[in-house]
Structure formats: structure tokens, C-alpha cells
Amino acid sequence: MASTADFRNGLVLKYNGDLHVITEFQHVKPGKGPAFVRTKMRNIKTGKVLDNTFNAGVKIETARVEQRPHQYLFKDDYGFTFMDTETFEQIVLNEAMVPFADIMKEGQAVTILMHAETEQPLTAELPTTVELMVTYTEPGLRGDTATNTLKPATVETGARIQVPLFIEQDTKIRIDTRDYSYVERVK
Description:
Layout: E1 2-3, E2 12-15, E3 18-28, E4 36-43, E5 49-55, E6 59-60, E7 65-76, E8 79-84, E9 90-93, E10 109-115, E11 120-125, E12 129-137, E13 150-155, E14 160-164, E15 172-176, E16 181-185
Antiparallel strand pairs: 1-6, 2-3, 3-4, 4-5, 7-8, 7-10, 8-9, 10-11, 12-13, 12-15, 13-14, 15-16
């Protein structure tokens, strides 16, 4: 059991009979009335995001999960195949358990959350940033230097993201996996 004071991003809760992971939370202490905590939780099975408010100090049941390093191997009709980097065992996850599949390339290191009591895989997570090559983008116009102007680009995995005007084809870039935003060019 945990209380709202123990909330942090990535904490897995048992809520309404399902497992949810906290993606955002905010402690709020209004001038009038009791304190409360606003949360955004993602259902691990369905991927749906739920907005919820908990009163401060409420006891919440948490789930014990372990993070295990894996490597993405390939995708086939059964789903995404990952290999445990320590035991070399392979597991297959369906598309709902891999929310960032469009920016994941073969050989990518990922972390898989496993339910500690049942040894069942819950979801896969990428590192905070990934490096991908731009395979197609329109050329930037000379003299078009308005601040924060973005253009669409296709990366090597087929995903489309927004990049600054100076990014050209065959440029390696770093992408933030939380919101699919451009971070920087990679030298």
C-alpha cells in the first residue's frame, strides 16, 4: 500500500481491477478546502489514458513490477519479438503493449516491465531519446528563418515527425520518445 505522497511517474497502481501506470501527477493545495492530487494514468492493457483526482493521503494499492533490459529483434504476424539481454530468452508482445512501435528500429535497447508476482510482461518502454536517420524531408527555403518554424520529416522507421527547417535528408537526429519531438542533430 502506498499513499498519494508516494506518487511518481512510472508508478504502477492497481486501480478499478486493472493495472495503470502514472504518466503525470500534480499535488494541488487550494487556498480553501483539502489538498488533492491530479493524475494521468495509462491503462497497461488497453493503453487508454485516464484523468483522475485522489484526495491527499488516500491509500492506493501498488503492483510490484520489475524493469528488465531487452533488445528488439523483429516484428511478424504474432507481434514484436524481444530478447532478454541477460538470459537470451525471447518474448513476443502485441501492438497494444508497445506504444512507440513506429520509432523503434531493430536492435534497439528497450526496457520491459514485468509483473513480479505473475512473471507476465506488461509493457515495453524506450529510452527517453532515440537516434534516427531522416530519410525524406522537403528542402528548407533559403531565407525562411522565422523562429520555431517546423516541417514534416520521415525517419528510417517510417514515422513522421516535425523538425526545424535546417534539417536535411540523411541527417541523423535525436527524438524525444515521450512526445515525438525533435531534440537535436547528432554529430
